[in-house]
Amino acid sequence: MVHLGNEWDDILKDEFSSDYYKRIRYFLKKEYAEQTIYPPMDCIFNALKYTSYSDVKAVLLGQDPYHGPGQAHGLCFSVQPGVTPPPSLKNMFQELSDDLGIVPPKDGTLTKWAQQGVLLLNTTLTVRRGQANSHKNLGWQTFTDAVIRKLNEHPEPVVFLLWGGNARSKKPLITSPQHLILETVHPSPLSAYNGFFGCRHFSKTNAFLESHGIAPIDWDLNTP
Question: What is the pTM of this model?
C-alpha cells in the first residue's frame, strides 16, 4: 500500500484500494522492471507527501514528469537539485522576475514552494524515458481527477493555476465559488509568448490569499 504520511492517506484510501489503481500498480511494477521510468519509484507521490491536504493554498498542475535522466522527482515543473532548469521552468522564472522582481534562481528545485502549500501535481505521475505522455492512458488521469475533486471540497479558498490545455482540462472539476482559477497557456517556449508572459499569476495568487487572511507564498527560491 501507498503510505503518504499525512491526511492524503485517509482522503485517498478509496482510490488506492480501487480496481483501476491496482491495474496502474501492476503495470508499473512491470514497467519499472523492464524500462527506465521517471520519477524514481519512491518519488511518484512526492507532491502529495510534501503538501498535506489542509496545507494546500495553491495547486499548480503540470502534464507529466520530465522524461530526461536525473530531472523528475515527483513535483511538477521542478527538477532535482543541481539540474539546470528546463525551458518551461526558465520561462516561469522569467515571469516571476517580471511580476515580482525576483531574481531567477540557478537551481530549478521547487521544494520550497511545496513546503509552503503549493501542490505541484502532474496530471500523469509517471513517464518512460524519452517518451513524453507515454503513461497518459495508464489511469493516472482518473486518480488526479479524484485529487482535484477533493481539493474542490477544501474548506479554505484555494488558487488553481491551470497552464496549458492539459491542466485546463481539469477546470470542470473545480466548481466551488470560493476558489480562484487562474488559467493561461503553457510556459513552454512554443506558447509562452501567447499569454503566459504577463499573466502575473504569482502576484495574483498572493493577492487572493491575503484578501482571505491566508499567508502569501514566498516565491523567491534564492533564500532558504
Answer: 0.97
